[in-house]
Amino acid sequence: MPYTYSPIVDRAPLAWPGGKKVAVYVGLNIEHFLVGKPSTSIWPGTADLLPDPLNHGWRDYGARVGIWRTIDILDRHGVRASALVNSTAVEEYPRIVEAGVRRDWAWLAHGRTNSALHAGFASKDEERAELAEIVGTIEKATGRRPRGWMGPGLTETFATPRLLAELGLTYVLDWTHDDQPAPLTVPGVISVPYSVEINDLQLVTAGRSGPEFAQMIRDAYDQLRAEGDGRVLAIALHPFVIGQAFRARYLDEALAYLAAQPDAWLTTSDDIAAHYLAVA
């Protein structure tokens, strides 16, 4: 394992800037999908077909429409996204990159494409070259070298953290095992909390409703706030899910609630990682 066991009740107190109790960030997935490769699907019945208009069109809605609706909501509440971006997405969707750069988003490397998992490398050198190309492509497009990583489908190899450290990255989101940042066994690399449950894909995979998703976010914040300092609330979003017209209002409601909380630090995963590395 890339980390050791550390019960949260045995740790030294962790304080966020300004005395805030809960660090909140939005992990905004900006993904590119290949035609003809099964990927995240709303109906698996056609996922193996070529072409697959039903599922590919559903995913493509995010980059064409849903992202802009989501950006409007983030802007309304003063939230900077932590953009989890495929390297092919920065090439395919320069208009999205332009919008994110203008808003000073944090940019995390999210693999090459979400149509392929970050796995199956023949050697460490092959993975090293793949990671260098991904990180370099994102840096060139955004003007900012990624500091963080989340693999497509939260995938990595046992070599990934060390190879990322060679490239200057300092944190990963793949291990959803904690409510606080935590060190990995690779020096200088930490895990920042992410969530597969406070995640809008639950609206599709688990049949959650928009009001349920908004309530999950409120409930998570309230519980983390009650438990003490140094907690992280990660909200994972996909524009082809939360950006649908009938769902967007529930993100708006949830962010309005969080923005009104005096103990919430609305921030980015980059800033969470940097603060933790500075004080831990």
From TrEMBL:
NodB homology domain mapped to chain residues: 60-172
GO biological process terms, semicolon-separated: carbohydrate metabolic process
Domain of life according to the entry: Bacteria
Gene Ontology MF term list: hydrolase activity, acting on carbon-nitrogen (but not peptide) bonds
Any Pfam family hit: Polysacc_deac_1
InterPro entries in the cross-refs: Glyco_hydro/deAcase_b/a-brl (IPR011330), NODB_dom (IPR002509)
The name this protein goes by in its record: Polysaccharide deacetylase
